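Record 1 of the preview.
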Amino acid sequence: TVINLSSKTLNTSQKLILSKGLNFALTPKDVPTLDIITSIEETCQKLSEDVSNEFRIRSKLILEKPLKIKSNINEEEKLSLKQLKHDKDIKILPADKGNATVIMNTIDYNTKILNMIIEVSFDVVSLFTNVPADKTLSIVKNKLENDSSFKDRTKLNVTAFMELLTLCIKTTYFQLENDF
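->
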C-alpha cells in the first residue's frame, strides 16, 4: 500500500515501484563474486581438508560460467526509482503501523520531527538522571579489561571503546537532515 501525503502526484510507474515495499531488493547488476568467494572460504575453514577442497573445486566451476542476471524491474521502474531517490522535496518512509509506504513533503516531515524533539529531549534527560553513568562506565570498563576474548571481537582497545561509550552515554546530540 502506498499512502501519498505529499503534494507530489505520483505516476503509475512510481506507484508500482513503491508498492513493492521498502524491503524490496533490486537484483545486483553483477554477480558479487568476491562476496561469494569470501563466504566459501569462511565455510571451508570449518570443514575437513578433503571436503573443503571438493567444495572449492565445485564452486570454482560454477563461478567460471558467465552468469546473466535478469533485472527484477523494468527500465521505466528504474527511471521512476531514480527520480524518487533524487527528489529532495519528498520523504519516503514506512508507515508507523501496517505494511505501507508513506510519502510526505520534506517540509512537513521535518516539522513533525521537530515537534517531537521537545518530548524526546525530556524523555532522554529523565532517563539519564536515573542511570548512574560514571558507575556504569566503571563496571563496563572493568568487565572489558578482564575479558580475554575482547581483542578477538574488535580492533578497538578498551580505552578507545570506553571513549566511544562515554560519548554515547554522556551526550544527547543527534542529527536531523544536516542540522545537529
